[in-house]
């Protein structure tokens, strides 16, 4: 069995930076909290929990903390979370991905100008929730063609469009094209991470040429789900697994070449385990 693994598979810059930040703080011997799971990978979160790291899910939980270090997750958070941490007198260590932080600055600045903010992304995703929390006015989240077509606002209202960093690049362009035909005064800031574009492009390319494709990543990872969607369109036998334990391949005998890619929150050791298992057992 021949295996082709994407060179872009695994931790991206922002994720590695966030995970490294947590381990650096652990070494200091302080009580560590992360605001939300530091990244969308259950295996990494479990490992950190074993080292005493506690995950805070809601802003109200900060009211119960008297001391300790709160690390902001890689997905970023709303402005009021920072305000609450300062109000409580807690130490704040910011591990927000710099690419996400850039979106916060754009949204804050453009909303202060009175511009309508449109976020192209998955409503409810923690990154999108954080972005919304930097606007001084109500934002609108658009994910589908139908939502873009139904979007309306005052014709004189200026519209600023940004994107979730892990959104599908081609779909983003499709939705922006719909907005551009509506006659609004729009400014588009393509905030999709360049690493995301590269990862999606490489995954699509590999999926086109292999007999089967394996996509590795956390169940709640938005960027991994998008990789799976992209690969599924190109390769009939595409599988989504979180760890080696999830790998139950039912491959036709004709399969000779298997492709492997992984989301931005997938540790290298899990990728290597899957690679080795396929190589030895098929």
Q: What is the general shape?
A: flat
Q: Please state the second-level CATH architecture of the largest domain.
A: 3-Layer(aba) Sandwich
Count of helical stretches: 10
From the alpha carbons, calculate the radius of gyration and give it in angstroms.
Answer: 20 Å
- End-to-end distance, in Å? 6 Å
Query: Could you spell the SSE succession in H and E letters?
Result: EHEHEEHEHEHEHEHEHEHEEH
Helical residues, percent: 40-55%
Biggest sheet: strand arrangement: 1-12-10-11
Describe the main β-sheet briefly.
4 strands, parallel
Number of domains: 3
Report the portion of residues in β strands.
Answer: 15-25%
Mean pLDDT over the full residue set = 94
Q: Can you tag this structure with a few keywords?
A:
3 domains, Cobalt-precorrin-4 Transmethylase, domain 1, alpha/beta, 282 residues
Quick overview of this protein structure:
With 282 residues, the protein is of the alpha/beta class.
Description of the molecule:
The protein has 282 residues and is of the alpha/beta class. The chain folds into three domains: 2-10 and 195-281, 4-hydroxy-3-methylbut-2-enyl diphosphate reductase, catalytic domain (Cobalt-precorrin-4 Transmethylase, domain 1); 13-96, 3-Layer(aba) Sandwich (Rossmann fold); 99-192, 4-hydroxy-3-methylbut-2-enyl diphosphate reductase, catalytic domain (Cobalt-precorrin-4 Transmethylase, domain 1, 3-Layer(aba) Sandwich). The protein contains ten helices and twelve strands. It has helices at residues 13-27, 42-50, 79-87, 98-112, 126-132, 145-150, 169-180, 194-209, 222-234, 268-281; strands at residues 2-5, 32-35, 54-56, 69-72, 91-94, 116-120, 139-142, 158-163, 185-188, 212-216, 238-241, 257-262. The strands form three sheets. Strands 1-12-10-11 form a four-stranded parallel beta sheet, sandwiched between helices. Strands 3-2-4-5 form a four-stranded parallel beta sheet, with helices on both faces. A four-stranded parallel beta sheet has the order 7-6-8-9, sandwiched between helices. β8 (158-163), α7 (169-180) and β9 (185-188) form a beta-alpha-beta unit. The longest helix is centred in the last third of the chain and has 16 residues, at 194-209.
